[in-house]
């Protein structure tokens, strides 16, 4: 049986086997970290660049650019070694979650510098993610627009109902005023008819009284004195 070939040790400058000061790593086992880097299980702790440079990869946690990065085993997302050490909370019994897909027991592996094929696939995946976000945003805007139209329709219908109520109340008021006028006219006409009925009787009594006085014989004044 042949001997099992071990992972080839990569040649790394000694200064890149320890953190570069991006974070304050107090509880890092530097000997273990150096061994993992030399055994190509973790990416070297290269200093990150703030500006994008050709053939450099961006860490999505610290947004710095590195010659090579680690790969998340769960979702293949890239991460630099110092950010990975920051994810692993020391002396904690809780399993570490992936900062990208939230998978428990977060672990990474180092595959070296990305090939052109890997970079091309990542660009395609990033483009798909961007297009998906654009579609989601467009759907959200469409939903908001539909909600706004519904609110406007409801408000316009409420205004129409209020106008109809006002018209109905004004018509009711005008109808009541007409009925009052008609009632007054009826009452006044009844009063006038009653007056007309009363006046002839009064006139007849006056005429009879006058006729009685006129029918009384008038004696000459001289005769009264003679008697």
TrEMBL record:
PROSITE patterns xref list: ZF_RING_2
Record keyword Metal-binding present: yes
Domain spans labelled RING-type: 59-102
GO biological process, alphabetically ordered: protein ubiquitination; regulation of organ growth; regulation of seed growth
Keyword list, A-Z: Metal-binding, Zinc, Zinc-finger
Record bears the keyword Metal-binding: yes
GO molecular function per UniProt: zinc ion binding
Cellular component aspect of the GO annotation: cytoplasm
Name of this chain's protein: RING-type domain-containing protein
Taxonomic source organism: Phaseolus vulgaris (Kidney bean)
